[in-house]
Amino acid sequence: MDAAILSHQIAIDTVSPVASTASVTAFPRSDPTALTSPVKVTETSYASSYWPHISKFVRLALQAELQTATPLHTFSHEELYRSIYWVCWQGFQKQLYADLIALVSETLSAIERQLNGTEAAAAAAATGREGDIGMWLERFSCVVHNHERAMGVMTSVFAYLDRTYVQYERHERLHDILLRFFSSLILEPSEARILFVFRAIVEDPAASPDPDGVTKLVQALYRFDPEYAYLSPRLFQTACDLVPTAGFAELCLKHGQCETRHQIQQLVSVTEHPHLKRPLERETTLHAGAAEAMVMMMVDEGGGGGRGRVDEDGCELKRERL
Prior knowledge:
Elements: H1 3-14, H2 17-20, H3 43-62, H4 77-116, H5 118-126, H6 133-157, H7 159-166, H8 174-187, H9 191-203, H10 211-224, H11 233-240, H12 246-267, H13 277-282, H14 288-298
Helix pairs in contact: 1-4, 3-4, 4-5, 4-6, 4-7, 4-8, 6-8, 6-10, 10-11, 12-14
GO molecular function, one term: protein kinase binding
Region (Disordered): 302-322
Organism: Jimgerdemannia flammicorona
């Protein structure tokens, strides 16, 4: 939380609401959320003034492409915090939370469609970059890095809602909720593509036009959740300087199982991402039986020839393909 928001939060928590508004004189009267005197929040004012102002900020924070025309600093974070405080203090915290969650879900779903849907495929074809992993990787990196920033700024601005409603009544944290939405609405629908792109980079580092960008992307995913290392244990181990542990073998196993599942889906032409079919088919892939055998070898500590074995610390010794 930045210093301005923190100082205002302390002031709010230590004086009465009436007294806390006495020193507020900087906001223009044209702003619907200006709090120059105690304000009565009604259903009408919430729907017509408070929520539109707050929702505009949330959309902007979650969508990086909008920030070129309207930078985030266009909004006063202290002003937003104050508006959210009044909304919550006057009994609208449940409504605000429900509206916020619905908006986050709607916005992240739209981002995923832009990333993986027919719109993205058409854009790639129009630029002659169909099947170019660099183009998709650049877009995915932008989504990941922006969501990391958005989680920081949103947990700061919504700190009062988080503390008094999300944590106190729902026994959750807003940060964890935003991360869970990222996982279910962005990462999981993109899993097949991520596996394909990361595998290509592991097998041929030159396949990535921006190695430093890949490293930063992997590190950001690891900050989100260390369990994301299953997407490419070898790549995460290198980028994040991971010390092999017993849990590393489980990540390798999950990685192999995910690859097998997506390969089987392709073989039977059942996929949730039709636009991924062509580039994945052009890549030489293992058939289902070979992939299953690969997974078994990963956890066979006594496997013949050493290929695919793991050591006593759970670290993969040798494997042709992740």
